[in-house]
Amino acid sequence: MKKIMKFTPHFILISLVGLTACTPTVQLETPKEGITINMNVVVDHKINVEMDDTTKKAIEK
User: Fold this and answer.
1) How far is CA 42 from CA 22, 29, 39, 45, 46, in A?
2) Structure pTM?
3) What is the DSSP letter of 50?
């Protein structure tokens, strides 16, 4: 039993080094130029004004 306990810390150290060596690395880089969004938008407005008869008579006077 004592021989197993003697080699256990080295085994743990070697396994930790082996596990950390296999971890993937993710690198993110920002673009040098800004993001440009080109939008071709046509905005058409159609406005309808509806009045009741009393208001129409008040405007005509």
Assistant:
1) 54, 35, 10, 10, 13
2) 0.23
3) -
Find all residues with CB under 8 Å of 59, minimum gap 6, and list them. 51
pLDDT digits (tens, 9 = 90+) for 6-44: 556 666 767 666 666 566 778 888 888 888 888 898 989
| 3-class SS string, 23-36 | CCCCCCCCCCCCCC
Handedness of CA 14, 16, 18, 21 (dihedral sign): negative
Rounded CA separation 9/3 (Å): 11
Work out the angle at residue 44's Cα, subtended by the Cα atoms of residues 43 and 47, and round it to the nearest 5 degrees: 135
Burial status of residue 27 (CB atoms within 10 A of its CB: 0-12, 13-18, 19 or more): exposed
